[in-house]
Automatic annotation (TrEMBL):
Belongs to the IFT57 family. The lineage of its organism: Eukaryota, Metazoa, Ecdysozoa, Arthropoda, Chelicerata. The keyword Coiled coil applies. This is Intraflagellar transport protein 57 homolog. One of its GO terms (biological process) is intraciliary transport. GO terms for cellular component: cilium; Golgi apparatus; intraciliary transport particle B; microtubule organizing center. Keywords: Cell projection, Cilium, Coiled coil. Its main location: other. It holds the Pfam family IFT57. InterPro entries: Intra-flagellar_transport_57. It is found in: Cell projection, Cilium.
């Protein structure tokens, strides 16, 4: 039986601070800081209070350490910072913080930095570093806000105290059943690993505590609610067992045994001792190799200085020529720009000249062309012919009128002479 008084929120450190001069210290420290940040957020119940409100999934333990999606990471960082400032830290801000997709990120960043300055006096962080959405600066700001939130919510860290309560009877019983437990351990571990693998595929982005909660929930669901009574015939049951018995054999592969480090702890110690023993023999050769490398590096440095002295004049000449080339390039660009403008003007003038030439050619052909004169002559000829025909018609008409007048005058004269002749005849008769 194990009794736990209280649990520490901090986890074992992944970083040895004595190795601060190591090249990978700053890289690993980001992972440790992010790991601590997730633990603090879990204490603040962000999965119940923050995730449902902002519709975000629970964060991965190393979410802000490596770049994945800068836009999404910056949005999550902004929402998480605003939630900590308003809900947990309860800081009084002069400007309203409400991160949105369409909002200017610089406004949000300055608001968050103003809130952090209320907690820490001096904050020298470039806004561009925060705008990336990941990195040590983002993790530091969130750690500062979570520390202030934990202090205001009266969260106190304390070490783990575990009391193991056992009796002599239980100890003897454990020793008696130890061999049986060891025999069944592999089968139980295989079944558990299978279940854990399925859950890990389904909930790959979540933490191990969530997977454990899922297993516990499934066990509660699958627990029978009442005593079950079997109505299966024993003979049929034995036949079915004999049929499927060959398929129930479990074959343990070597990879399955190597998955448990506890089964190979002695081998790990042996390998460590071998490494230490071989290191003693190779340390001298490594030191000699290091001394030789240092000597070669010193020689290379001296040779480099000698070459720099020898080539100093050529280097200065090269620099002057390079500067002259830059000036020539700039002047060429300026001249080429003027040539381009003049070429454009020349093209436009050439187009206007072509249009003028076309108009002149049209007018010249119109002036030298004799077709209008021929058409005029033909028209005059036709007019003259029509005039002659009209003259003939006029003469015929005048002749006809003349005949009619002559006829009329002759008729009048005859009519005047007729009575005189009649009287003369009467006189002759009488």
């Amino acid at each position: 039986m194990v009794e736990v008084d209280h649990i520490d929120s901090s986890s074992p450190s992944l970083v040895n601070h004595d190795d601060s001069k190591s090249p990978g210290y700053h890289f690993i420290s980001n992972f440790q800081s992010m790991h601590d940040l997730i633990e603090k957020l879990i204490l603040l119940k962000y999965d119940k209070e923050f995730c449902p409100v902002y519709k975000c999934q629970p964060l991965h333990r190393y979410y802000f350490t490596i770049q994945t999606n800068p836009g999404e990471q910056f949005y999550v960082f902004s929402c998480l910072s605003v939630w900590l400032i308003k809900e947990k830290c309860q800081l009084k801000m002069t400007s309203e913080l409400n991160p949105q997709d369409y909002e200017d990120p610089n406004v949000t960043i300055h608001g968050i930095l103003d809130a952090v300055r209320l907690i820490v006096d001096k904050v020298s962080i470039a806004p561009n570093k925060i705008k990336q959405g990941y990195g040590s600066e983002v993790i530091w700001i969130l750690n500062t806000l979570t520390d202030d939130a934990l202090s205001k919510n009266q969260f106190a860290r304390s070490p783990i105290v575990v009391k193991v309560l056992t009796s002599d009877k239980d100890y003897e019983l454990d020793n008696i059943e130890e061999d049986k437990i060891i025999e069944d351990e592999d089968d139980i571990e295989i079944n558990f690993n299978d279940q854990f693998t399925l859950l890990d595929d389904e909930y790959g982005d979540f933490d191990n505590e969530m997977v454990t909660d899922k297993l516990y929930t499934q066990s509660l669901v699958n627990r029978p609610q009442a005593i079950l009574a079997s109505n299966v015939d024993s003979a049929e049951w034995k036949i079915e067992v004999e049929r499927v018995l060959p398929q129930l054999k479990v074959i343990l592969r070597s990879s399955d045994h190597k998955a448990d480090w506890r089964a190979h702890i002695e081998e790990m110690y042996r390998h460590r001792n071998e490494v230490e023993k071989h290191f003693e023999t190779t340390s001298n050769s490594l030191k000699k190799l290091s001394d030789e490398i240092n000597k070669e590096m010193a020689q290379i440095g001296a040779r480099e200085k000698y070459l720099q002295l020898q080539l100093e004049t050529l280097t200065s000449e090269y620099n002057s020529l390079e500067a002259h080339l830059k000036q020539a390039t700039e002047s060429y660009k300026m001249v080429s720009g003027g040539v381009t403008e003049k070429s454009r003007k020349l093209a436009s003038i050439s187009e206007e000249l072509d249009s003028v030439k076309e108009e002149m050619e049209k007018r010249g052909t119109a002036m030298t062309d004799g077709t209008p004169l021929i058409s005029i002559r033909k028209a005059l000829t036709t007019i003259k012919q029509e005039i002659v025909s009209l003259d003939i018609r006029i003469g015929v008409a005048m002749h006809t009128l003349l005949r009619i007048k002559v006829a009329d005058s002759t008729k009048d004269a005859l009519e005047k002479q007729q009575p005189f002749k009649n009287n003369r005849m009467d006189e002759l008769i009488f």
